[in-house]
Amino acid sequence: QVQLVESGGGLVQTGGSLRLSCVVSGSIYTINDMGWYRQAPGKPRELVAALIRGGVTRYADSVKGRFTISRDNAKNTVYLEMNNLKPEDTAVYYCTARSRGPGSAWDYWGQGTQVTVSS
């Protein structure tokens, strides 16, 4: 069993920065890929960033050049560094993980953390 706990959300002004953290516990040896989704009211869920097999990164076009996904294995933590935030980045951000590689479902989810960007 895997547990994911996000933190680091908050209220920031346009152009500001936040770093989200996701602490992974439980059967962490079963995890292959990590990712961050976001969900805004009235909008479809969007995969913002993914860390594939602990090395290759992927980003949504809407956040390329502004967001960075990384990990610290010693702390069992995955980060999402968000820079130059825009009002359209406002959403609940979810940490997610999967036990298999690309093409498989995301198996585990955190509870979400709210990010609000004021104009």
Overall description:
There is one protein chain. Strands 2, 4, 5, 6, 9, 10 and 11 form a 7-stranded mixed β-sheet that branches. Strands 1-3-8-7 form a 4-stranded antiparallel β-sheet, with no helix packed on it. The protein is an all-beta fold and 119 residues long. 30% of the residues are buried. The termini are far apart. The mean pLDDT is 95. The protein is 0% helix and 55% strand. β7 and β8 form a beta hairpin. It has no helices and 11 strands. The protein has strands at 2-7, 10-13, 18-26, 33-39, 46-52, 56-59, 67-72, 77-82, 91-98, 108-109, 113-118.
Write a brief caption for the model:
The chain is mainly β. It is built from no helices and eleven strands.
What's the helix and strand layout?
Elements: E1 2-7, E2 10-13, E3 18-26, E4 33-39, E5 46-52, E6 56-59, E7 67-72, E8 77-82, E9 91-98, E10 108-109, E11 113-118
Parallel strand pairs: 2-11
Antiparallel strand pairs: 1-3, 3-8, 4-5, 4-9, 5-6, 7-8, 9-10, 9-11
